[in-house]
Design brief:
alpha/beta; six-stranded antiparallel sheet; 18 strands; five-stranded parallel sheet; 347 residues
Length: 347
C-alpha cells in the first residue's frame, strides 16, 4: 500500500513538473538560454492571439473601425500591420492605426470593397462588438526611420499606417507634412483627428479638386524621408516625383511585380505529372486545378498559407513574408513564380 502511494506521489509530481515546464517553455521558448535584450519569445509570428472586439464604429462611408482588446497583445511600432483571421478562416492584413502607447489594445480599419475577394464584406457583415477575433503578432515592413523631416502621402484607406507615424513624428519634434487624397471627404476616414494638426495636413478630395498635386515633392529638402501608402498608381507617382527615390518608403498590400509574367511548368514530385501555369494566372490557381484541396487564404503573399517546398528550379519571389533563409527552399504559390521555364514542388 505504501509503495503504491509512493509511486502515485512520484507520478503526480512528475505530471506537475511537466506541466510547469510546458508553461515555462510556452512563455519563453528559448529557456533556459539567457534572455534577449529585446524579448521575442512567446509571440511567434505563426501563433494566433485571441482578442475581443470592444468597439465598432464607421469613421467614413464604407470604412469599419474596430478596437481589439487582449492582455497578451505584443507592443508595436508605427507602420506595423497584423494578420486577421476572419470567422470563415480567411486571413487578411490590416495596418494598426491606434496609439502604440495604448497597451492591450489594437485598432484597425477596413475599407469595404464590394467587388473584392470577400474579406472586407465578411468583416463588415460579421465583426461586431463583443465578438472574438484572432490576430497574429504585428509585423513591420514600413518602419518609421529617424529623420529631421518627413513628407507623408496617403490615399484613401492608406491613411491607416500613417496615423501613428504622425503622432511619432510630432513627439520627436520632426517637421512633417501630409498630403491626403481620396474620392470624397465622406469616404476619407480620420479627418477630424487630422484637423488637429492644422496646416501641416492638406486634404484633397477628388470630387472637389481632382487628383493630388505631387509636384511639391520635387522641392523637399535633402534628408527628408517620404512615406506613402495608397493605391499602386499613387505610390508609383510618388516614387517618380521624389528627388531621391532611395528616400521613398512604400507600404504595399499586394504582390510587387518584379518583371513581366511568363508561362512556366510546375512539376508535382509526390503527385506525379505536371501543370502548366499561364502568364496571366498564379501558380496556386494552376496547382489547384489538379490538387483542389491545396490550402490558401490571402492570395496576396502575406499570410503564408500556400507556402510549399521547392525541390528544383529558381523562384521569382514576390511575397512580403518569407525570410531569405526560407526563400532558399520555399515559395508562396499565390504570388511567386518560376524564374525559368520549370519548377519542381514537393506536392
Amino acid at each position: 500500500m505504501r509503495r503504491a502511494l509512493a509511486v502515485a506521489a512520484v507520478a503526480g509530481a512528475a505530471v506537475l513538473t511537466r506541466r510547469a515546464l510546458r508553461r515555462r517553455v510556452g512563455r519563453s521558448p528559448l529557456w533556459p538560454l539567457p534572455a534577449l535584450e529585446t524579448p521575442i519569445s512567446g509571440h511567434s509570428p505563426r501563433r494566433w492571439l485571441r482578442t475581443l472586439i470592444v468597439s465598432r464604429s464607421e469613421p467614413a462611408e464604407g470604412v469599419l473601425r474596430l478596437v481589439l482588446e487582449s492582455d497578451e497583445l505584443p507592443a508595436w511600432t508605427p507602420g506595423a500591420h497584423v494578420d486577421v483571421r476572419l470567422p470563415s478562416g480567411l486571413v487578411r492584413q490590416y495596418s494598426l492605426c491606434g496609439d502604440p502607447a495604448d497597451s492591450g489594445r489594437y485598432t484597425i480599419a477596413v475599407r469595404l470593397v464590394e467587388d473584392g475577394r470577400g474579406g472586407s464584406r465578411e468583416a463588415h457583415a460579421q465583426l461586431v462588438e463583443g465578438a472574438e477575433l484572432e490576430v497574429r503578432a504585428p509585423r513591420n515592413r514600413f518602419e518609421l526611420l529617424p529623420a529631421p523631416s518627413y513628407a507623408f502621402v496617403a490615399g484613401g484607406i492608406g491613411i491607416t499606417p500613417v496615423l501613428p507615424m504622425l503622432r511619432a513624428a510630432t513627439e520627436a519634434g520632426a517637421d512633417w507634412t501630409l498630403l491626403y487624397g481620396g474620392r470624397s471627404r465622406a469616404s476619407m476616414p480620420f479627418l477630424p483627428e487630422l484637423a488637429a494638426y492644422g496646416d501641416r495636413v492638406t486634404v484633397v478630395a477628388q470630387d472637389e479638386a481632382g487628383l493630388p498635386d505631387l509636384a511639391p515633392l520635387a522641392g523637399i529638402r535633402p534628408g527628408t524621408l517620404v512615406y506613402c501608402c495608397g493605391p499602386e498608381p499613387l505610390m508609383e507617382a510618388v516614387r517618380e516625383a521624389a528627388p531621391e527615390p532611395a528616400a521613398v518608403h512604400l507600404e504595399r498590400f499586394g504582390a510587387a511585380a518584379t518583371g513581366p509574367a511568363r508561362a512556366f511548368t510546375v512539376e508535382l514530385a509526390r503527385t506525379g505529372g505536371a501543370v502548366e501555369v499561364a502568364a496571366d494566372e498564379s501558380a496556386l490557381s494552376a496547382v489547384r486545378r489538379v490538387l483542389p484541396d491545396t490550402p490558401y487564404s490571402c492570395e496576396q503573399g502575406f499570410c503564408g498559407t500556400c507556402r510549399h517546398r521547392v525541390l528544383a528550379g529558381p523562384v521569382d519571389h514576390r511575397d512580403e513574408l518569407l525570410t531569405d533563409e526560407e526563400r532558399a527552399d520555399s515559395m508562396l504559390l499565390c504570388v511567386s513564380r518560376a524564374a525559368s521555364d520549370r519548377l519542381t514542388l514537393d506536392l
